[in-house]
Amino acid sequence: MDGLTYEDTVAIAPRNYDPTSFWSLVFHECIHVVQYQYLGVDRFMEQYVRGWAENGREYRAIPLEHQAYRLQERFDKGEDFSVESELGLKALLF
């Protein structure tokens, strides 16, 4: 695990990142900050754990992670978009 987000706090593991992968990781974790803002701590945690349990305990299959990785890929491609718009309340209600 390279990064961890809890509510509005992001922790990044101390490694030698190249600038591109570092900012991509920071972006991914900031997506989780926005997810927390929309869902609140309790609902985020509920959806995260339920998503993990219901998807074979596979990290990348957790819907909140899938959503974050999808947007991270767009960020990495240099696409112009609004995270808030992409993560509208409707999109977060699985």
Describe the structure.
The protein has 94 residues and is mainly α. Helix 1 (19-54) packs antiparallel against helix 2 (63-76). It has one domain. The protein has a two-stranded antiparallel sheet with strand order 1-2. The protein is globular. The chain contains 4 helices and 2 strands.
Note the overall shape.
globular
Number of separate domains? 1
What ranges have pLDDT less than 50 throughout 5 or more consecutive residues? none
- Beginning-to-end CA distance, first to last residue: 25 Å
Number of beta-strand segments: 2
The proportion of residues forming helix, as a percent range, comes to 55-70%
Calculate Rg over CA atoms.
Answer: 13 Å
- Structural class computed from helices and strand pairing: mainly alpha
Give, in spatial order, the strands making up the sheet with the most strands: 1-2
Taken in chain order, the helices and strands follow as EEHHHH
Sheet with most strands: 2 strands, antiparallel
Roughly what is the average pLDDT, rounded to an integer?
A: 92
In percent, how much strand structure appears in the residues?
5-15%
Number of continuous helical runs:
4
